[in-house]
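[job 4471] stage=fold_predict status=RUNNING
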Amino acid sequence: MTNTIIKKLEDPKVFDAFIQENMKLSTYKAEWKNEMPAPEYCAAKVYQAYLAEYGAAIVGSIVDKNAEKPTHQMPVAAELVGSIGRMADEWQMDNDRLSQFYYLEGRYHDKKASYSTSMREAEFRKLVQYLFDPFEKAIIAPHKRIDMLYFEGLFNGTQTVDATNNTKSHVSYSYDLGVTKFNATTAAWGETTATPIDDLQAVIDYAESKGKTVQRIRMSRSTFRKMCKSSQFAEAFTVKMGRVEVKSKFISPEDVNSYFESIMLPPIEVEKDRFATLGNGTSVNLTVNDRVVLQCAQSVAILKVSDPLEAIDKLPNKTYSTYDDNLVGFWRSDRGRFTDYEMWATPVFNGKNDYFILKTDEVEGKGE
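[job 4471] inference complete, writing structure tokens
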């Protein structure tokens, strides 16, 4: 079948148009794009960390006039220079799916003469969408990983790649971003004795001591509901009607923000659920419960991006398209047809004291 759509995709221009046009119709949008400015491109696949901040943070030692100078351990190179992560996967296109596609394509050609123009276009669109599905997965996959690294960094202050979330590769690491974290001051949120307003105020006071102003307070729906269970909140939303006290049964985010405005606290943003499917088929919510993020800037990270070598030094008998800095490939070998992707990108949290994390399920003042 030399005239089949799949065969035509071996033409680089046709393949690129196939990817670009179908992604215009895709309903997928990377979550990180709502959080970060335009990516920053690096010629080398590393980025320089804040060496100046590290140096400025060290206070000189006072020593006896005849004593030896104290020896300090300088941070290792990996702590000062960050690496831009490589994301890549490859899929063999399922033979049963290919057979089904060839069948549907043949059926389309047999019947298209009897179709109206609109019906012909609609049936052809269905055919192309069926074929596009594995390519869309290849385009989306690295952006899902970026989402995972970003939101873990935002809510937990860490970035982790391990056997749980990286099942197809042996690469494993955990990186602490050095974000200042706080615990609940009196009781865990969800307990009636918790004091969430005091907890938030403690973080805001700390931020101000660092010359920062909290602009956004972010939490999950579950964390918001736990916050509202405290007696401190119940009392704030109790209305006295003569001798009778009437307590609000339901407290909405709008109610809370109206109250926060009156006591000069920043507004709360209740975050939506963000689910990602891992390689083993399980789902994880990227919006972490029992964590409150207090941001002192609208954006606290930037995506560092670099080009794969294969984007410049292409392999023969393979067609390529680049979408959102992700290099997608397509080829045929004696083992079948394949699609793959390669993307070099890492969300980098680039501001010192730009955000703080309140761990509402842990108690006893400031954490780390």
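[job 4471] summary: The CA atoms of residues 115 and 184 lie 66 Å apart.
[job 4471] exit 0
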